[in-house]
Design goal:
CATH architecture of the largest domain in chain A: Up-down Bundle
Strand content of chain A: 5-15%
CATH topology of the largest domain in chain A: Butyryl-CoA Dehydrogenase, subunit A, domain 3
Number of helices of chain C: 11
Helix content of chain A: 40-55%
Order of helices and strands of chain A: HHHHHEEEEEEEEHHHHHH
Number of strands of chain C: 11
Largest sheet of chain C: 8 strands, mixed
Shape of chain A: globular
Distance between the termini of chain A: 55 Å
Order of helices and strands of chain C: HHHHHHEEEEEEEEHEEHHHHE
CATH class of one domain in chain C: Mainly Alpha
Strand order of the largest sheet of chain A: 1-4-5-8
CATH topology of one domain in chain C: Butyryl-CoA Dehydrogenase, subunit A, domain 3
Shape of chain C: globular
Number of strands of chain A: 8
Oligomer: heterotetramer
Chain lengths: ~400, ~400, ~375, ~375
Amino acid sequence: MTADETAMHADLRRRVADFLAAHDPLTSDRLEFLRARYDAGLAWVSFPDGHGGLGLPRALQLEVDQLFDEAGAPDNNRLANGIGLGMAAPTILAFGTEKQKQRFLKPLWTGEEVWCQLFSEPGAGSDLAAMATRAVRDGDEWVVNGQKVWTTGAHSARFAILVARTNPDVPKHRGLSYFLCDMTVPGVDVRPLRQLTGEAEFNEVFLTDVRIPDAQRLGAEGQGWEVATATLNNERVAIGGSAGPREGGMVGVVARTWREQPHRRTPELHDRLLRLWVEAEVARLTGARLRQKLALGQPGPEGSAMKLTFARLNQQLSGLELELLGEDGLRYSDWTMVRPEVVDFTERDAGYRYLRAKGNSIEGGTSEILRNIVAERVLGLPAEPRVDKDVPWKELRK
Amino acid sequence: MTADETAMHADLRRRVADFLAAHDPLTSDRLEFLRARYDAGLAWVSFPDGHGGLGLPRALQLEVDQLFDEAGAPDNNRLANGIGLGMAAPTILAFGTEKQKQRFLKPLWTGEEVWCQLFSEPGAGSDLAAMATRAVRDGDEWVVNGQKVWTTGAHSARFAILVARTNPDVPKHRGLSYFLCDMTVPGVDVRPLRQLTGEAEFNEVFLTDVRIPDAQRLGAEGQGWEVATATLNNERVAIGGSAGPREGGMVGVVARTWREQPHRRTPELHDRLLRLWVEAEVARLTGARLRQKLALGQPGPEGSAMKLTFARLNQQLSGLELELLGEDGLRYSDWTMVRPEVVDFTERDAGYRYLRAKGNSIEGGTSEILRNIVAERVLGLPAEPRVDKDVPWKELRK
Amino acid sequence: MSDPDLLYSDVEDDLRASVRDLLADRCEPAAVIAMYDGDRSLVDGLWKALAAEMGLAGLLVPEERGGVGASAREAAVVLEELGRAVAPVPFLTSAVIASAVLLDAEGDLLAALASGERTAALAVPLSTAPDDAIPAARADAGGRLTGAFTSVAGALEADVLLVPAANGESVGVYAVPASAASIRPVVSLDMTRQLADVTVDGAAGELVVADGERAVRRALQAGAALLASEQVGVARWCLDTTVAYLNERRQFGRVVGGFQALKHRLADLYTGVESANAAARYAAVTLATGDPDASIATAVAQAFCGDLAVTAAEEAVQLHGGIGMTWEHPAHLYLKRAKADQLALGTPGVHRARLANLIDISAPRMTAEPAGVATAVDDSHLTG
Amino acid sequence: MSDPDLLYSDVEDDLRASVRDLLADRCEPAAVIAMYDGDRSLVDGLWKALAAEMGLAGLLVPEERGGVGASAREAAVVLEELGRAVAPVPFLTSAVIASAVLLDAEGDLLAALASGERTAALAVPLSTAPDDAIPAARADAGGRLTGAFTSVAGALEADVLLVPAANGESVGVYAVPASAASIRPVVSLDMTRQLADVTVDGAAGELVVADGERAVRRALQAGAALLASEQVGVARWCLDTTVAYLNERRQFGRVVGGFQALKHRLADLYTGVESANAAARYAAVTLATGDPDASIATAVAQAFCGDLAVTAAEEAVQLHGGIGMTWEHPAHLYLKRAKADQLALGTPGVHRARLANLIDISAPRMTAEPAGVATAVDDSHLTG
């Protein structure tokens, strides 16, 4: 660490200490504490002054969060507002007007306003740019009609990041615009989308003559694809970049079962578990190494490779777990349709884990799309022949 | 079996018995015996009368061969002339003139004339139709120039089936013609092509102003691709269609090592071997089922799926064998360059098996090409976008 | 031809067509999905049509015992179709396993099963492999049974339970009216073959098979051999449906099925399904003919088909993308059935371990090798 | 930052560049291929340049013992590059393993190794895992050794052999001049690390390590930890070369690397190589810092990297098509090295079994379960 870096660390630690001295985390009002932390630039330290940050390197965030957590500081609704914090916020910061940043970032960070994402459509999954939801200009407003799917938390979200087609006469990537959509206005109809687990973790959102002020357009008209891509890159880093402790997540669950229920062991399952244990440990190390690279400012599409591994391991481990459980693997907890707030694999039964993990290779970019990304952007292999690149969207065969 | 079929079998058995009574397999001159067998229509029973056959269903061939083998009849050079018997002969039968059939089929079957295949080129492997070897008409002859690779047995072959480009001005598939090439004429230069095993099982063949009479063209001018495709379909049936006894081939070798050397066993290798044993047994059954379908006249591209399995299993089993052998797996028999007459995995050391098996997924159609074939011709999925289909060959970027 | 015939006869093709037609009419995916929400109204009518009207309940029962006197070949074809439709009927549990238990039994229970008049279930956990310990109740001298059995398949559809019970020295199989037992439905991973926990608490049972262990093992073995055909049916639906979907779905201006990476995966899946078909067919044929190779054939088929069906269902869900994850799309029915089938009657790993003994590929002896020093003296090297 | 640094420092990047440049100049594929035909003329000069001129022989030797006093981090970088070039030099056998044996030894042999003046090899089979039984010769009272060792790596390049030998109660390591032993070259799967059978028949040895078993095990452990980096180098060459080839080769009018099935396989391979890199790096870092996690890190790295390098080499051969099968193309050098490395110092399966004990994922007890009848009486169910 250079002398400058050491000084920066010390300064930051002092700021946190000062803040905590002025705002007792255990007695302060929760919202007041969070708003004050934002105003002190200790929310996202890499964000600019005035927008919750201090303009510091991203690598310092972890340290700040740890210091606050250790002091028992209140949580800013982190789990329920993952899309807001991980995806909407950096996009608003990068593409928003000053006014938009002032209006949206603070209540987003404090968790007062939870966000969801309205991107995917039934006909536009992997081919997201094919989306058909239309936004038509009407004075200072846009009138939006269409259907979105795979929306996490739409029923409890206050705002959404939304991409819609504003110009059908140009090729598909060029006719999209990006909006910040109020989920409480008329015409927004959120319906639960039940999954194979029995639960409705996602929603379908039907948009009928929804009016969005032009002031809530993010980025230029027609720039929607570029803005959405920035959002999705943040998602993939978020999904792929975490590297917890050894035996974190699914592998820990299965290892525990192995240790606690010796009568279930067989030599075949033993070697399979060891293989997956090794792969999970290697994935953890790979994630740690990737985070070290990112901290040095070498971000890139490599996070996609992590997500591939994470999805495969979750699926293989949860599949093995059912074989290990044998008779008990044939039993399920409950098929009742509920709308869970949070997805936590480790606290649920093995059957749920097995089924839910199937989504890991679909949500946030299918494994097939991620392999394309790695092949093209990391390895420099040629892109697929694109037959629809220069064709106006309205002329494409759907 | 219907009454007709029963009568057909009985008649065939009687013919064989009569033939053997007239030609004692143990005392007759080898070549005389084979020629007589051909003339009696007991060579390829499904070939027409006068060309070594009796026009019977292909399914009966196995029975005839068994009867002759049991009687100790001489071998027609089956192993060394696999390409002649399996590929050249059915193609000559299908596309040859009466004169060509009369000239070539009999000495081919008796093994007097061994055949090789001149198809692949350095720049035309999977994309075989891209071949660049040119044949230019000169009166009643063709003058051939070019380079062929992966030629088995070229150094001992009397004739070759050869495809060359006779018209570079039309798209690649349409400008090829198919020839029967005498390997002893001037301009044919056969050089050993050494492989990773250390041996030179294949050859490169350089053709310099080689003259081939037009009478040795098989099929019409420009019909070469169609004729070659027929040849290759026979190859894939030949490679994929065989289903020997349980524990035949590579799996038997590894199983024997397992049984004979108990000190090498580990639980991990045990389950892996059992998995591969199961897969090998299932592949055997799948091959048997495929042969039953083929016997009923339901041929098709399904043989490609068998070859995929066969290649994968050979590679996995031979890889596991080296792990099982441990220290002994680190030792090799001999890297000396030789030109083997026959490839037999089971009689060689484990390192050779491991290396040689790598070729199983390349020779006779790579596994990648075979997957395309299964996906397109069996499952009916769309073909790859073809950018070179309607472009004259000479204008293609090489 | 010395190889056993692994293809389908014309009669088998006809049988398949009849079963498939009936299932297409009367076993719609929406009704099957509703079972996960507790609506089991589909089951009775469907089973009646298959069992009694089509006569499938008696397929494996000899004619002289009131059945059709067909063989495992035909039963396998039926199971392929039932798997293909994830049909929630007790064919495997009653017409295959329970009937196999009763094959040497006196009395007319087998005939009642064959006619479809009654339906039975063997009271063991669905996960029991043919070589596993067989759970048994206790029978007192008066034939009153006491015991509990978990995760029993077919019990919810049965009106008679076949209960293994220890009576003095041996274990017999007793027939107990379902009404005399406590049958508690279990929330199951596969609700199309919903399990139940069964308790008998002094229920009167009729001894129907004296040598119960032999009969139960034989029945589980037959069940395992034929389950492979159900797995083939499940896998084939997954392959066919995925190929059809990908031939229709467009993304990036192209039919998705034209993307080479997907084509190659489907080619591999096709290869696997064809292989499973051959393995299952061989298991059925050896069972039909009483071939001594049936034990190996069954272990091979279960070791292969159990995993293959899961792979097929997992690929189907993945390659359908988001839609394959939804409750409305039937893909999840196949995933759950495939995974439950993998655990049923012994996992593939269990069957590989069974196979090891049958084919003389023995496990290593588990002596912990002492990590020490070995003297490396090879006197043959010391002559020079 | 609490995680160990898994990246490369600037010093390490410089070291890598120097080694790579030298190998590019002086270790051409054609010369390496020639070793399979018995032409070993490449070895001496190349090793001299690396060991003495660049000082790599002393990388792991403390400065006070005459070495460079670098750490396993730097040695790992060197091994990545040596793997990348399948360089036929005894760095692993002499500068890593033999040096580690001698780390606590008295005398100046270690300094001689560090300077590159002498080269040593430990006389055990290359396949020996750190926990395996260690073969040992017999030492008589006068220090004369008798014994035979098969498949020893580095012996052909060594001028001194480190021979484990039993002397009364313990096993010591003895230094024996290569000229006093019989060293018979073995035709090896990997001729770029050619093995030899070594026999000592009354040769005079100098006892250099009294507690030989401990020193040998520590050396094998260090060797295994760093072999992972060699495997990463092999794998990375395979990936890079295949990507480059497929970006150039045209078939069907298209660059072959644009076919999606191949792209996806290369994406998976990239993911594997990056993973192996992290695993190998962690093993090197824990070795460098004496971290107690080094045992787990080494077992994990060997379990993963050994297979990954083989996969990478197999994919390279396959995706090069026919040309990858030829003797002229260097791909086979990497296939043979990868496969030999997989068997070296314990197979991945052996390392997984070692790991099981370290992480409390114990093997099942191997009691053959009696297939019998269990009484299924659960009294808790019988209260209703």
